[in-house]
Amino acid sequence: MKVSYKKLWIMLAEREMSKAELRKLAGIAPATFTKLRRNQEVALSVLLKIADVMHCDAGDMMTFVKDNNPSANEVVEAE
């Protein structure tokens, strides 16, 4: 599974808040914010800070997307 923060970016646009403003208000490090922009996993504490600033919960900011690649535990048979 992968994570998508598309809902967060839409919420920011609807509230006319910039990504830089959110980063500053939530006190998130630039490198961590880059992970968010790249749809990479971040610590729960980061999500809690954003939820506090945006007055929402995790489900309002993110979704889980099924990964199309076979998992490492599955055996892939060669043809």
Report what the structure shows.
The protein is mainly alpha-helical and 79 residues long. It has a single domain (2-65), classed as Orthogonal Bundle (434 Repressor (Amino-terminal Domain)). It has five helices and two strands, in the order E-H-H-H-H-H-E. A two-stranded antiparallel sheet has the order 1-2. It is globular. The two termini are 26 Å apart. The relative contact order is 0.23.
Which keywords apply here?
single chain; 79 residues; mainly alpha; 434 Repressor (Amino-terminal Domain); two-stranded antiparallel ribbon; 2 strands; 51% helix; globular
Biggest sheet, spatial arrangement of strands: 1-2
The CATH class turns out to be: Mainly Alpha
SSE series:
EHHHHHE
Which regions have little confidence, pLDDT < 50, spanning 5+ residues? Answer: none
For the report, how would you describe the main beta sheet? 2 strands, antiparallel
Instruction: Enumerate how many helices there are, as a single number.
Output: 5
- Counting structural domains, the number is 1
User: Which homologous superfamily in CATH is the superfamily?
Assistant: lambda repressor-like DNA-binding domains
Quote the average pLDDT. 89
Kindly state the number of beta strands.
2
What structural category arises from helix and sheet content?
mainly alpha
Distance between the termini: 26 Å
What's the Cα radius of gyration? 15 Å
CATH topology: 434 Repressor (Amino-terminal Domain)
> What overall form do the CA principal axes indicate?
globular
Proportion of residues in β-strands: 5-15%
Helix content: 40-55%
